Amino acid sequence: MVFLLQIQVITVQKADTLRSVPEEEICMVIRVFLLLLLSCLPVFAGGVGYVNYDKVVANYQFAKTSLREIETKNNEIQQYLLNKEKEFDKIESAVQKKKFEETVRVELKARENAFNAFREKREEEVYTRIHAVTEKIRLEKGLDAILDARSVFSGGVDITDALIQKLNSN
Asked: Which range of residues forms the domain containing residue 16?
């Protein structure tokens, strides 16, 4: 079934003045258009599920452990910087200070790169595990799609608690 919808916003011109359409009318036209557009979408046979990703990450043990590990590595870099700052303050020669700064800059860059790689790896592991279990739940419940809860304004099946339970039981 194909629906064609034409919406025209008309402005009236009087002499040299132009009257624009009030904002409320434009908003109403947009709402009507969106409702008509959504009504034209195919109806999902199995429905749509949604998940509160922030709640999942906050309650998923592996995610919490990963976050603690990331924070620990970040704190190690901060402590490294504090220690190097103390060492720098003890150096008297300008030449030695310059050499020390360069050495620390290179070491810090290497530590930051290692930290970023570690963080990205852990975040990917968390996401991959959540995605895999989400897909299992989608198939079990016969859902057509699972969206982030922030994308669902009305309706749908909340699978957040079921997802957290399955993730923590694995």
From this structure: 1-41
- Reading the block at residue 26, the tokens are 């434009």
* Residue 53 and residue 87 in one domain: yes
- Token output for 16: 């040299």
- CA atoms of 53 and 163, how far apart (whole Å): 10
List pLDDT tens digits, range 63-96.
999 999 999 999 999 999 999 999 999 988 889 9
Q: What is the pTM of this model?
A: 0.65
DSSP letters spanning 47-103: -EEEE-HHHHHHH-HHHHHHHHHHHHHHHHHHHHHHHHHHHHHH---HHHHHHHHHH
Q: Are residues 15 and 47 in the same domain?
A: no
pLDDT tens digit sequence for 42-59: 554 568 999 999 999 999
